[in-house]
Amino acid sequence: MRVVLTGFEPFGGDGTNPSWDAVRLVAEQYAAAGSPGGYELVVAELPCEFGRSLDVLRELVGTHAPDVVVCVGQAGGRTGVTPERVAVNLDDARIPDNAGDQPIDVPVVEGGPTAYFGTLPVKACVEALHEADIPASVSHTAGTFVCNHVFYGLMHLAATEFPQLRGGFVHVPYAPGQGHEDAPSLPVETTARALSLIIHTTVTRTTDLHTTAGALH
Amino acid sequence: MRVVLTGFEPFGGDGTNPSWDAVRLVAEQYAAAGSPGGYELVVAELPCEFGRSLDVLRELVGTHAPDVVVCVGQAGGRTGVTPERVAVNLDDARIPDNAGDQPIDVPVVEGGPTAYFGTLPVKACVEALHEADIPASVSHTAGTFVCNHVFYGLMHLAATEFPQLRGGFVHVPYAPGQGHEDAPSLPVETTARALSLIIHTTVTRTTDLHTTAGALH
Amino acid sequence: MRVVLTGFEPFGGDGTNPSWDAVRLVAEQYAAAGSPGGYELVVAELPCEFGRSLDVLRELVGTHAPDVVVCVGQAGGRTGVTPERVAVNLDDARIPDNAGDQPIDVPVVEGGPTAYFGTLPVKACVEALHEADIPASVSHTAGTFVCNHVFYGLMHLAATEFPQLRGGFVHVPYAPGQGHEDAPSLPVETTARALSLIIHTTVTRTTDLHTTAGALH
Amino acid sequence: MRVVLTGFEPFGGDGTNPSWDAVRLVAEQYAAAGSPGGYELVVAELPCEFGRSLDVLRELVGTHAPDVVVCVGQAGGRTGVTPERVAVNLDDARIPDNAGDQPIDVPVVEGGPTAYFGTLPVKACVEALHEADIPASVSHTAGTFVCNHVFYGLMHLAATEFPQLRGGFVHVPYAPGQGHEDAPSLPVETTARALSLIIHTTVTRTTDLHTTAGALH
Question: Is-contact C120 C3, C-beta < 8 A?
């Protein structure tokens, strides 16, 4: 089995992005441990650009033919690790991306469906994180910036060209040293442990739990 | 022009629901002022039940043939009035509804599309609230409880049976006296003023602003 | 009876400060209503400077010989109007003040007591705000910036030179249009109504309620 | 050198209290590592009772004659580990303690000073936590419940009977599995690591850093 795990480069004036810092750490630890999960792990850093991010992702999928793709991004202000449940066909950028583009009310894919559900076992993943004492919950919005753009693009790829591919998106909190001192944060090491558990959960089960992970609003 | 505005009954152990308190106040103030907006306003309280809420909504739409429907619900913990942009075809109840039902991972409408966008001019509404010094932003998730259920059901009605109907959902914060003292809240009077402005904005314009109201996550 | 009510000028890069905007509105409304409370109201804008703020305050107290002094400042991120209970003899500035000074671990008054309690009926004030449907709670820290500096200086003045003077500090949330869109906020008009109620409560009673307004942490 | 480190028993309906869970883990890890810091570590669980908590603390101090005392308590809703800077001479209990007592507006020590500053190097501690990628900040209020009661009582003991004793209080966030799913939390293991670093920092230095750790409000 082959797993592609991506993080993002920094954006919005920050010097680091904990999504990529954590993804890189996952790869280091997995290699150092001798790939104990039995799957091949490919990691990559995506540009925080509406234009190029999906080009890079498509090339990763084409090159590696992964069984599972997990894209990871930063969600500043969230208190835990949050697997996303739904991607929306909407770009609405509050700030310019790293290439200076700021699309407003444009679909990710012209003519695509309004939304896709991700296909990771998000409830089983959250349960695994809770058992490991890591704050986590299912999220029902990935926003309307590059993260949602990549998530929608990934699920559209799976829906149209790679039907065997299971994929999803995970948002992670700030890291402590990142300069957002009033906001919640998690050590990068904890976030990396969470991502490893999400991959492990995904490769070892194909169905999700039938428990509630709903949001009242 | 005819407008239907709904709020919800209390749920989750609360004694009041600011959505209905505010909707009722909107109706009182509009009637007392002699219906100055030139539209007919019908208000109703929806049951906080997956089963009956859409029955009641459908009957309201069938009876009154409204041009605009705005459903309002409480979003405890939010800091402002938040018009919703997207409804998802998913019921996942964290707690039982007022009839004791707790659907998990069930579609609102079997075979319906994954999501609908609302058709209110949400950005123009938020701008009108900001001009009135009321905290507001566009939201991209209405959750997976009865609020999202009603929103999705409303947009499905519009898509399948009432093509002229414009509709949407607005989440409102707690009220100060409601017993959630650590959470953000708004006076019911302020929330009512916000809803009046949302209706006024909706009936006086048919297109939305082309400004960003996006979320980074 | 004479009441001095102060707000602060903007600081930290903001273009406005809701504390002064609300104080000014209180004065306008009180004058327009013909001073219905029977007290004389003097308002002033304090500089957001460690050095000059207490000079200005001392001159206000010397000139007007007020019975009550209420100083008001902005507490960005708070969800309601928060009368402060305790002032601490500590300046520790996270950012420079408007004069460029940034004292670190310096007492407000060399040799002064570690802290003073304010002498407003803070619990009765919070109850009055709750009855008016305005979010409010008692706070037990005014921070270590210019707000706490002024609060401590005021209580030290009362303790050492003006024993008849009753005084205190009230922190207020951001206003909606201020540029902190993810933070809680209150309309300036609501904040002004709150300040009017706090003055009214203070001038019409001399003892506080015996109810809890405590914080678990 | 001898260090006393205390946590609290659960309160407010919770089944666990991460302060004690983390303190116990610190002791286990320190013993398992062969007491590498060269100090003797004594840990104890304090009752969450206004009446008995200080009796137990006084007995611990009398029995063990510690050089350093660090009391730890839970601060539900905080996003990081927060060494406290100031204890206030005020009990104002929002809820009854575990013995059913609910003091309102009573001093911790009749006739004591309004407040004490703690004597841990709180800024150096926070810096050590940041270097370890753990979210942390200095807090300027320990509330008015049993935590502040114990903190004030400890500093009063030091001021009146044990002048060599250095002491302070540290508030810690919820743990992930504790049942407050919408609130920030930290793994107990991370909190334990933080407490170990706070003890290490305190026993290896006697003066604090001269850097700002101030709060704007």
Answer: no
pLDDT digits (tens, 9 = 90+) for A14-46: 999 999 999 999 999 999 999 999 999 999 999
Choosing from A71, A125, A127, A171, the catalytic residue is: A171
D141: chain C residues, CB-CB within 8 Å: 139-141, 215, 217
φ, ψ for residue D113 (rounded to 5)? -65, 160
Task: With CB atoms and an 8 Å threshold, state whether C135 touches B176.
Answer: yes
Best of B16, B21, B78, B79 to mutate (most C CBs within 10 Å, chain C): B79
Averaged pLDDT, C101-113:
97
Which residues in chain D touch residue C92, judged by CB atoms under 8 angstroms apart? 212-215
What are the sequence ranges of the domains in chain A?
2-204
Residue C202 is inside which H or E element, if any?
A: helix C188-204
What pLDDT score was predicted for residue D52?
Answer: 98
Say whether B171 and A217 touch across the interface (CB within 8 A): yes
Cβ–Cβ gap A215/B94 under 8 Å: yes
Which residue in C174, C186, C197 has the most chain B C-beta atoms within 10 A of its own C-beta, making it the best mutation to test that interface? C186
Phi, psi of D92, rounded to the nearest 5 degrees: -145, 95
HSE at residue C4, side-chain half, CA atoms within 13 A, is 24
Model confidence over D37-87: pLDDT tens digits?
A: 999 999 999 999 999 999 999 999 999 999 999 999 999 999 999 999 999
* CB environment C181-202: b (16+ within 10 A), e (fewer): bebbbbbbbbbbbbbbbbbbbb
**In whole angstroms, how far apart are CA D128 and each of C128, D85, D136?**
44, 17, 9
- Each residue's pLDDT expressed in tens, for chain D with a length of 217 residues: 999 999 999 999 999 999 999 999 999 999 999 999 999 999 999 999 999 999 999 999 999 999 999 999 999 999 999 999 999 999 999 999 999 999 999 999 999 999 999 999 999 999 999 999 999 999 999 999 999 999 999 999 999 999 999 999 999 999 998 888 889 999 999 999 999 999 999 999 888 888 888 898 8
Residue C206 vs residue A109, higher pLDDT:
A109
Ordered DSSP codes for chain D:
-EEEEEEE---TT-S--HHHHHHHHHHHHHHHTT-TTSSEEEEEEEPS-HHHHHHHHHHHHHHH--SEEEEEEE-TT-SSBEEB-EEES-EE-SS--TTS---EEE-SSTT--SEEE--S-HHHHHHHHHHTT--B--BS---SSHHHHHHHHHHHHHHHT-TT-EEEEEEEPBPGGGS-TTS-B--HHHHHHHHHHHHHHHHH-SS---S------
Of C86, C145, C208, which has the smallest distance from its Cβ to D217's Cβ?
C145
Q: What is the pLDDT of residue D87?
A: 98
Continuous segment of H or E residues that includes residue B32: helix B18-32
Would the CB atoms of A134 and D79 count as touching at under 8 Å? no
Condensed to tens digits (0 to 9), the pLDDT of residues B157-191 reads 999 999 999 999 999 999 998 888 889 999 999 99
Chain B residues whose CB is inside 8 A of the A73 CB are 217
How many Cβ pairs within 8 Å bridge chains C and D? Answer: 129
Using CA atoms, how far apart are residues D97 and D92, in angstroms rounded to an integer? 11
On chain D, the residues whose CB falls within 8 A of the CB of C91 are 214
Q: Does domain D2-204 have CATH number 3.40.630.20?
A: yes
Handedness of CA D16, D20, D26, D29 (dihedral sign): negative
Q: How far apart (Å, rounded) are the C-alpha atoms in residues D106 and D99?
A: 17
> Taking Cα atoms as reference points, which of A110, A114, A129, A206 lies closest to residue A170?
A129
Residues of D contacting chain A (CB within 8 angstroms): 79-80, 129-130, 132-137, 175-177, 181-190
pLDDT at C163 over 90: yes
Catalytic residue numbers of C read 84, 147, 171
